[in-house]
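Course assignment 3, question 2. Fill in each field.
Student: A.L.
Task: Predict the tertiary structure for the chain below.
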Amino acid sequence: MNQKLERLWETKNKDDEWWSSFVSSPLAVLANWLVVDLKCITPNGITLLSLLVALAASILIVAGGQIKFCVAALLIIASHVLDCMDGQMAKYRGSTSRFGNYFDKVTDQIQIFFWFSAVAYAAYLQVREISVVFLAFTGVSFYSLRVYVKYVTIFIEVEHDAEYLEKSSAEAASIKKTEAIQAGLGAGWQKNVIWFLREQRKFLLFNEAVFVFMLAAALVFNLLVPMLWIFAISQVYYGTVRSWQRGRQIYLNQHEELLKPMDK
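Answer field:
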């Protein structure tokens, strides 16, 4: 039992996003411990289930009402746990695939569209101001820009250096080895506390895992409009900064900087 749990823990992304680090991924490890040996359950099936749960949450948000909001919050968290489970299961089984990776990333983007479209609608019904719809649209658009900038930069660099991906992977591995804090099962409480405190900095990156926490909290406490303001402002900031940062590095041919891991 312990060996199985340790193997599953090793499949956890060592550079997880904020909420994933200490909630979604550990819960996914525990859930996988129960089902990972059931061959009828596949990683791609879990990815699809995550998308369906996200859609169910969005429908409840549109339906409205505090009880439905709270259930939707739980479903959003469950969807994110499932989103962590699929990759862990594939790694544990040694069955990772290019399609699985593609399917996972595409459904992540679709979920964000579902959630914020539903929240924009629910917020509009509360305040009757079209500005909340604009806030959601702005946030989703600039978050998509963050993702686009990352991948278009990789595409451009590969066009000019066929070995770019290998060099970038080596650079990322070197940085992780230097900066990594050994935490988790068997690491001791002190290292785990240090890891936990350091992980809190990631909240300010306002990435997908932070959205999960923000959406769930906003639904439970019925703070949809303030959450949409935070979402929009944070994504405009990071979308603009990442675009300028990568554009400047490409313009100045700063290839060493471009080899470093790219944040969204």
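Instructor remarks: Residues 192 and 233 are 32 Å apart (CA to CA). The domain at 2-258 is CATH 1.20.120.1760 (Four Helix Bundle (Hemerythrin (Met), subunit A)).
Grade: pending
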